[in-house]
Amino acid sequence: MRNLVFLALSALASLHAVAAPSIDVGSMFEYMDEKKRTLVKHVHNHGDSTAYVKVSLREVVFDESGREQDVADPDGAGILDKKEGLLASPSHLIIPAKGRGGLRLVHLGASERERYYRVTFAPVMPKTLDEFKLDENAAEQYQKSFSAGVNLLVAYGMVVIVRPENTKFNTLVRKEDSQHVIWNQGNSTVIIPHYSACLGEVCENLGLSHLRPGQKKIFPLDGKKYKVFLKEGEHSRSVDLEG
Fold first, then answer.
1. Cα–Cα–Cα angle for 116, 60, 43, nearest 5°?
2. CA of 35: how far to CAs of 29, 58, 109, in Å?
3. Domain membership of residue 138 as a residue range
């Protein structure tokens, strides 16, 4: 009897197991240096059904506290027909199950200062004759595949950092009062891929962070030993800080 109940529950669960797309955009940060103004971003679909993905982008700036703010687009141009700034093509992706799609990003025009763009990949439920060009039957069948269960289509974003022309790195490391300071005095972002903080034999490894131009990162004199890895364009180095 218990086996029959188990089989019945398993059959019921299988009815509600609905195929769904599951996209993966990989790295959350991409970088364009002064010599290369194009890149291809690959988006993977690890799910069991086709992913219909809309792509949007917007330029952002950061205030002194690090809060992100949108930059108004005076031309109101779409992501395919900009004459200046970051252009993305195509504006939508159709990615088969277990497959991948590619997005080409191109930065147009001069860039005297470093610029930042947020790119969003949003899986959507396609409608008849929208930009995905599905006919009524195909759109209806795709929507029905989701009707048997609750599915959440999650959007993912990444940031593209476009380095300025005549990129200059000038990273100052010094001791001030009761702290160590790493200060980006250059005109482009310094990447800290990771760093470690050790107290005796116990070490903690901390992940990715960025120092935008003018930003400082503080390490207190707290008895710990810090090993900080810095990536300045194509060049990498490490600094040791002792509390």
1. 60
2. 18, 23, 13
3. 18-162
What is the value of pTM for the model shown? 0.84
- ∠37-165-106 over CA atoms, to 5°? 15
d(CA 190, CA 232): 5
* CATH (domain of 67): 2.60.40.10
Task: Tell me the pLDDT of the chain (243 aa) as tens digits.
Answer: 444 333 444 444 444 445 678 999 999 999 999 888 999 999 999 988 889 999 999 999 988 778 888 987 765 555 555 678 999 999 999 999 999 999 999 999 888 899 999 999 999 888 765 678 777 787 777 777 765 555 667 889 999 999 999 999 999 999 988 899 999 999 999 999 999 999 999 999 998 999 999 999 999 999 999 999 999 999 999 999 987
Any domain includes 49: yes
95 with 207, same domain? Answer: no
CB 163 within 8 A of CB 31: yes
Nearest-angstrom CA–CA distance, 109 and 100: 30
Which residues is 54 bridged to in the sheet? 92, 122
Q: Which of 162, 182, 212 finishes a domain?
A: 162
